Each structure stands twice: as structure tokens, then as C-alpha cells.
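Figure S7 source data.
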Amino acid sequence: MVISNATVIAPTGMQQADIVIEGEQFVSIERHSRMNHLSTSSEGSQDVVDASGLLAFPGLIDVHTHMRQPGGEHKEDFYTGTCAALAGGITSILAMPNTSPTLVNRATLDMALDLAGQNAVCDFGLFLGASSSNQRLKLEDPSLRECGLKMYMGSSTGDLLVEDFGAQYEHFLWYPHERVIAVHAEHEPAVRYFGARGERRPVIAAEVEVARAVAMAGKVGRRVHICHVSSQREVEIISDAKRRGVPVTCEFAPHYLYLTHEYETGASHAPYALQPGSLYQMNPPLREKTDVETLWAHLDVADCIATDHAPHTLEEKYGLAPPSGVPGLETMLPLLLTAAHERRLMLPEVARLCCEGPATTYGIRKKGRIAPGFDADLTLVDPNDEWVIGERPLYTKCGWSPYAGQHVRGAVKQVYVRGRLSFVDGKVVAPRGTGRRIVN
Ligand code: DOR
Ligand code: ZN
Ligand code: ZN
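C-alpha cells for the predicted zinc ion complex:
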């Protein structure tokens, strides 16, 4: 199959090219010329997709999602969640272990892997959850098929929490050093202290715990990945750690780049499409305009942008004890393409942050690049399609978006997973269960 005359986006630049796919892999990327085009069509045995005017990204890899299965199927499951991923141009997801039950041992992890294998329409990896008693699990059972270890150093949705220094440190010591520990870094005593006073979680809760995670990684000499960096202070700490050679990576999330706390607190004149309030409650919470500006100014500190897709139903979000989190799989790429149109970042930067960076961070060897020998995961977008979020149907089971009403420029047109056309003309066409576990 040939994807002809696309503008291929890579971290290093952009070029007009014909992308040749055989089976599940890319086999060559050739500079586009009319001659190429004619010769391929005349062969007759090849399918030619005319991608003139479209941008071709490597299929996006979202390293932070909550699929809610098992236990939260009323708000998402592996099928609806991965359909939403495809609609957002994402061909691989890594999913978090804060399900019910939590994925903290072989039995629960294997059960969730089976559910994902039966239902996913894009490729997937699942995190093992760190608990206060499973520090030696991977050491004793290296055949576990997790994509990484997720540690909640502060509490959030679900029951996972490793608060004590000792247990945290043992995970840092004993989980294989070359594999990734991804951390939700908010200092639990601070979370409790401010929570008891009815206050929002402040930046210092994140600041203290990010510093702790960096200190432990530096001391032990191991990898650590900081999830959803939300504030200026976190950026400063991580940037400083990287300069000192600490093996730390991090991800930014769209909500901290596009929204401020006013959406939750209703304190000023945010362009509300939805009522301000609990819909926008999340952990860590939305921050100040200065934090948003710092994140945009320091995209170079980020290794990935990841959605932290955290679906909850509107009923739950408007209820008496609203859970934290917002969905994001279907909106990340359109929002970034809009920012690219506005020259807030360049298209190659999108490929670095959403494709190659995630693959490098998690050691996913055959994904994240349009290059010979790589999985033919491909996202074709029309950069000029203008639309309003919320006007096109959403695949996420929770059925809403915190960006509803926002005007965006750029839309996903076709998505291929390992060479298979999986999303086209707004429809998921991949059969349930065609997603495969990512080996890293
Ligand atoms: O807002 C959040 N929601 N933060 C988290 O850390 C977890 C997530 C969820 O699972 O709902
Ligand atoms: Zn988190
Ligand atoms: Zn999360």
C-alpha cells in the first residue's frame, strides 16, 4: 500500500513523500514525485491512497490514560476508550492501574491484559500499580507483562497510594532500574492538610513530591517519569535535575496547557462553554496563567505530551462528591494542531512530543517513527478542517469534553494501526480486539 504525497512530519522536519507499507510495517519513504505516483498506480497490485493536502504523523502514543476496565465500565472500557484514542489520532495507549480491583499483582494484571486484548482497537500497554507491599514483585517475577510501574506518591482517584518514604524508596531500589516508574507526585501529608481545610491542592504539594521523586531517582541512579507536570516550580525542578544528569523524564498534559483554575473556581472571565466548577476538578488541580505560560515556554523540558484521559460521567462530576479528572483522548491532537496553526509550537515538535518522545521514554522500539522496519501506525490529518469541539460525536463513554465550544483547526481523517485502516471518515472500522499488547 502506498500513502501518496503526504506531508510527513518528523521531529527533525517535514517533507512531501510517498509512504510504502507492506503488511504491518513501513518499508520505505520516498520523496514524492509524479513519476513515483504513476509507476505505483500502473503496477495495479498496490493500493494507493492519495494523501495530498494531508499531514502524516506517526500514530500518536499516549502514555497516560485511564480505561476504567475492570470496575468502572459505566464510564469507559477498553473498546470505547481505544475508539476514542483512534478518533484522536492515537494508535497506542498506556493505561493506568487504578481500576477496581487495582492492578497490583499477576492475577489482576493478567486479567486486565486479557480484557484489553479482547476489546482494544489500538495497541496498548498496562501499568502495574505500586502498593505498600509489592516492592519485590517484578524482581521475583520478571515475566510480568507490565509496560511500567505506576506509583501514586499522593492519593487520587482509586485506592492506590504509596505515601511512606520507606516503601517509595524500596520501589525505586528494586523495580528494574532501566524500566520506568511513572509517578503521580503530590505530597500526601500536604494533600491531607489542605484538604481538611477545604482548600484546593496547592502547588507546594506537587513541588515537594516532585523534588522527592527526583532526589530518590538521583540517589538510586534509576529512571523516573513525572506524570502531568502542571506548574512553574515543577518545570524548574525537573529542568534542573535534567541538567545535573538525573535520569528523569516527564509529560505535560493538555489541560494544564489550555485551561486555568478559573474554569474550576469561576473567579474571572474564562470563555466558559460549560458551567465553571467541579467538571474541571482534577489532580493536580488547574493552575495560574503564569504556570500555563511557563509550560508553553518550556516545552523543551517535556519528553511527552499525554492526555491523562480520566473519564467520569456528568452525573458523577455534578454529584455531591465529584471525582477528579477530565477526558482528553479525542481533543489533544486537534488542540495541538490549532496551537501549531497559531505558531505557539511547530508541527515537528508535535511529532517529538506525541510520537517519538513517548516511544523513547518507554523503550517502545518499533513505534513512534515513520521509518522502514517500524510498525505502520499512521495518522493522517487535515490541518485546515475547522470545527467546534462538542459538535462532532465523541467516542468516550463519558460523552463530554472540557473543551466543548472551543473552535479548533485540524482534524483526524484516517488512522492506520500496523497497516490496517482503523478509523476513516469519522468512523472506527477496526473490529474489537484488533489492538495488540506493546512489548517494551
Ligand atoms: O484527576 C485525576 N484523575 N488525577 C489522577 O491522578 C487520577 C485520575 C483518575 O483516575 O480519575
Ligand atoms: Zn496522576
Ligand atoms: Zn492519571
